[in-house]
Amino acid sequence: MHAVQSQGLAQGRGSMAAFEESMADETALRASVAALINVPAEKILLTTSTTEGCNLVVSGLQLGPDDEVVTTDGEHPGLLLPLEASGAVIKKARVTEMPASDALEAITGEVTPATRLIALSHVLWLNGHVLPLADIKRVTGLPVLVDGAQSVGAIPVDASVADWYTVSGQKWLCGPETTGALYVADHESLRPRMKSYYASARTDATRLQVVHLAHTMVAGLRAAVADLPEWGFRRAAELVARCRDALVAAGFEVRTEAGHATLISFRVPGEPAEVVKAAYERGVVIRHLPDGWLRASVGWWNDESDIERLVGALQHV
């Protein structure tokens, strides 16, 4: 990323050589993201965020007041607000405070003949539970849009079970801000409300792309994807299990069930925002959630000492 930035500052972006190199890096990035989530590269386009990906899909479906969309009560605004802007009727399945095993029935139970779309997260940002995407698709047979912000780079992903699947570059992939991607199973299924140069120059999924990412951002995300170790998912799963056990053993209330993703939602005595500040002063970064719970994120780059520091910090707030 730094090398590309230095080259750009020295030579500029206007030459044909610079353009061709930038396009080659975009193609390589699309291929690496596609391989990571197990889909064909020609079905991947680059975005600035999961929010942009969700907006591209929802606006491209041209939903209206006669249409229903089934989602959950645990969705991030990056998905929920594009749905609300569509004008469709939004039905929220209650899953956040329910056992993870009940999610399939809760979601499919909201489906009616008017349902045009199921839109939900692969990993819920509020409690870290993994939703059964393949089962939801199998039971309903409906188009499925997946918010992959908390899954790609955190757990193994097969995006082909969905019709559209978003990728956040800056989260679990540890890439630069304002980077991401979108998997589109059938690009002809969308009638985009916004178009760019790509719409006139491309015939695959990239025709839907609106923003041309800076070459430095593309290079940065490409390097981040390449840096994901083959043992990363396994190591993250081991650490999150240890972290959950440590929080429970310390007497804290944990709502994230075992065996899910890399987010752990929990509660400790005190005002959540103040707990976050106190933990930060001890070198521990956690966040408070809109529903009053706290959340820790555990990645392959963490180790056992980080878990000890987390528990220790929470015991002293």
How would you explain this protein's 3D organization?
With 317 residues, the chain is α/β, with parallel strands linked by helices. The chain has two domains: 2-227, Type I PLP-dependent aspartate aminotransferase-like (Major domain) (Aspartate Aminotransferase, domain 2, 3-Layer(aba) Sandwich); 232-315, Aspartate Aminotransferase, domain 1, CATH 3.90.1150. It is 39% helix and 15% strand. The protein has eleven helices and eleven strands. A seven-stranded mixed sheet has the order 1-7-6-5-4-2-3, with helices on both faces. α4 links the parallel β2 (68-72) and β3. α9 (232-249) runs parallel beside α11. The chain is globular. The two termini are 39 Å apart.
- Structural class given helices, strands, pairing? alpha/beta
Main beta sheet: 7 strands, mixed
Give me the count of strands. 11
Instruction: Tell me, rounded to a whole number, the average pLDDT.
Output: 95
Shape: globular
Span between termini: 39 Å
Oligomer: single chain
CATH architecture of the largest domain: 3-Layer(aba) Sandwich
Number of helices: 11
What is the count of distinct domains?
2
Query: Helicity range of the residues?
Result: 25-40%
> Largest beta sheet: what is the strand line-up?
1-7-6-5-4-2-3
